[in-house]
Design goal:
By secondary structure, the protein is of the alpha/beta class. The chain has 3 domains: about 200 residues, NAD(P)-binding Rossmann-like Domain (Rossmann fold); about 90 residues, N-(1-d-carboxylethyl)-l-norvaline Dehydrogenase, domain 2 (Orthogonal Bundle); about 140 residues, Rossmann fold (3-Layer(aba) Sandwich), CATH 3.40.50. The protein is built from 17 helices and 14 strands. Strands 3-2-1-4-5-6 form a 6-stranded parallel beta sheet, sandwiched between helices. The protein has a 6-stranded parallel beta sheet with strand order 11-10-9-12-13-14. The chain has a two-stranded parallel ribbon with strand order 7-8. Helix 1 crosses helix 3, helix 8 packs across helix 10 and helix 10 packs antiparallel against helix 11. It starts with a strand and ends in a 6-residue tail after the last strand.
């Protein structure tokens, strides 16, 4: 099967590479000439474990190619995936300009049946706008060429995207015709050998499934963070609470970890977009508005603990920050709690020393040299007055607390991910402030 994927960002590149790896001929399209030039050299523009090897292997086997022009390859493909960005507008709604431009390009250049599949996360009703855009371009040309549109939302976790794509727990496709369904069933057959389903729905339901899934996961995170804050007040331990409720099969244990809020490219954007869609349709999602408010508040929790510990006397303090990305195994800093914390620390007159295994280049791109970038954990600790644990990278989880005390000017830990054992930290005489219980 021959496929074009428009948008060579996180979703498009992972999708294209994994489809090529099972034998499809895939051409990834992007308007960014520098990105395409790098990809042709098998240089990935994103950090994702396992992607570089797959990229190189499938380019060498000539199953994966790259171009800046969809028009140049559209005559040779059966399916066009649209995986372009849908950034939030100022009001929180999804910006569909790139999605619709892909549709117009298809309408202007197609000469045979095309299945146009939206992979981007888009509001309910987008497929109808896509269909209209294609049809209008065909009418301008005075031709009547058959086509279908479909919705195929992605459920990739950054840091685990390759495994998620190759061994999905479900694949959702929203279609309007048998022809479209058969094409997508054939395409995804190699990925459901594990017995997990391809769920076929109408297009509107498929569009809603993606938003509803992310909104539910975001809700669980904010719920547990609210419970964690209450646990600290009443003397309960959120880790024990999590085990107690997570063992209930009606609830389950995933996404019940307390921390300093969610970030990344999906949850914040999708929650905002779903709230906006509801408001546009006269249906206020008050629960999700609270989820969003709790999350924004939670991003400030470490700073508040730090401020209270020093009784407000924080100007001139040096803070060591471990982790910058919004989660481990990615360099993504979109909506990352670290950005909120850095901003508050700098405004309070603090100096920030930071280390992240992969995200320091991205951080420098975003905020420049307003903080000091270090080369490892213990360099970061040198002469610091406090340690903030912001991202739970594996290399942070085993700490030499004696060395920590010798490197820091004043040893105190504010653990935003609860990665240390409170008893071990206390045995070394270090004040410890986790999330959701009294350290």
């Amino acid at each position: 099967m021959k496929i074009a994927i428009v948008g060579s960002g996180y979703v498009g590149l992972v999708t294209g590479t994994c489809l090529a790896d099972v034998g499809c001929e895939v051409c990834c399209v992007d308007v960014d000439e520098q990105k395409i030039a790098k990809l042709k050299r098998a240089e990935s523009p994103i950090y994702e474990p396992g992607l570089d090897e797959l990229l190189k292997n499938n380019i060498e086997k000539k199953r994966l190619s790259f171009t800046t022009s969809l028009e140049s390859v559209i005559d040779s493909v059966d399916i066009v995936f649209s995986a372009v960005g849908t950034p939030p507008d100022e009001d929180g709604s999804a910006d569909l300009r790139y999605v619709l431009e892909v549709a117009r390009t298809v309408g202007r250049s197609m000469n045979h049946y095309i299945l146009l599949v939206t992979k981007s996360t888009v509001p309910v009703g987008t497929a109808q706008k896509v269909k209209t855009a294609v049809r209008e371009e065909l009418q301008k040309r005075g031709v009547d060429i058959p086509f279908d549109v479909a919705s195929n939302p992605e459920f990739l976790k950054e840091g685990d995207a390759i495994d998620d794509f190759k061994r999905p727990d479900r694949i959702v496709v929203g279609v309007e015709s048998q022809r479209a369904e058969e094409l997508l069933q054939a395409l995804y057959r190699p990925f459901v050998m594990n017995g997990h389903p391809i769920i076929v729905t109408d297009i509107a339901s498929a569009e809603m499934i993606k938003y509803a899934a992310n909104a539910m996961l975001a809700t669980r995170i904010s719920f547990m963070n609210d419970i964690a804050n209450l646990c600290e007040k009443v003397g309960a331990n959120v880790n024990m609470v999590r085990r107690g409720i997570g063992s209930d099969t009606r609830i389950g244990s995933k996404f019940l970890y307390a921390g300093i809020g969610y970030g990344g490219s999906c949850f914040p954007k999708d929650v905002k977009a779903l709230i906006h869609t509801a408001d546009d349709n006269g249906c206020s999602l008050d629960l999700l508005k609270s989820v969003e408010a709790v999350n924004e508040r939670q991003k400030q929790v470490l700073f508040n603990k730090f401020y209270d510990f020093f009784k407000g006397d924080v100007a001139g303090k040096t803070v060591a920050m471990l982790g910058l990305s919004f989660k481990p195994n990615t360099d993504d800093m979109r909506e990352a709690p670290s950005l909120v914390l850095i901003d508050k620390l700098l405004k309070a007159g603090c100096t920030v020393r930071a280390y992240d295994p992969v995200a320091m280049g991205e951080c420098r791109r975003r905020i420049g040299n307003s903080i000091t970038y270090c080369t490892d954990v213990y360099e970061t600790l040198q002469n610091a007055d406090a340690l903030f644990v912001v991202t739970e990278w594996s290399e942070f989880k085993i700490m030499d607390f004696k060395r920590l005390k010798s490197e820091m000017r004043q040893a105190v830990i504010f653990d935003g991910r609860n990665i240390y054992n409170a008893g071990e930290v206390a045995a070394n005489g270090i004040p410890y402030f986790p999330i959701g219980y009294r350290g």
